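Hi R.,

Here's the chain you asked about this morning:
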Amino acid sequence: MTLSTIFRVFGVIAIAVALSGCGGTSRTAQPVESQRPGSSIDDDTTRIVEGGGGEGTTIWDAFRRQNTEITVAVNKYLWSASLEVLNFLPVQSVDPFTGVIVTGFGTPPGGGRSYRATVLINDPALDARSLNVSVQTKGGPANAATVRAIEDAILSRARQLRIADNRL
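And here is the predicted structure, written out as C-alpha cells:
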C-alpha cells in the first residue's frame, strides 16, 4: 500500500464517522398518560414523541446523542372539523405531528373572493384557545370577522363531532 492509499482510507473512515453522528429524528405515537394542568385530555388526543439529537456548536456535539423529547397533542375533533369546514380549499400540506393545516387559494360556495387558510391546533383541549386560524385573500389578510366566523364554524363542528362520537 502506498502512503496516498492509506490517507484515502483514513479520509473515508473519518467522513463515515462524522456522518454517522448526523442521525435523523424518530416519531412515535404513544397514548396520552398524563394531563397538563388546565387542559382536559381524553381519548380524543394523540401524543407524538419526537426524539433525536440536538443542534451542537462543535464537531464533537455531532457524536453526542441527546435524549430530548417534544410532546405534541392534537385534538382529533378540531382536526377533523378544520378539514370539513375548509373542504372547499385545496389542501397544500398537512402535518398531524405539529397540528398544522395549510391550504391553497379557493373560493367558498356562493362567494366571489378567493381565500387561503393556515390552521394551527396547539392544545389537546376542545376550546377556542386550542385553535389558531389565519386567513388571507389575494389582496392581503382577511378581515377579523371572517376569521372569527371560520373559527366559530370549526369549533361548532368539533363539538358536534364529539357529541356524535359519545353516542356510540
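One quick note: The two ends are 75 Å apart (CA to CA).

Cheers,
M.
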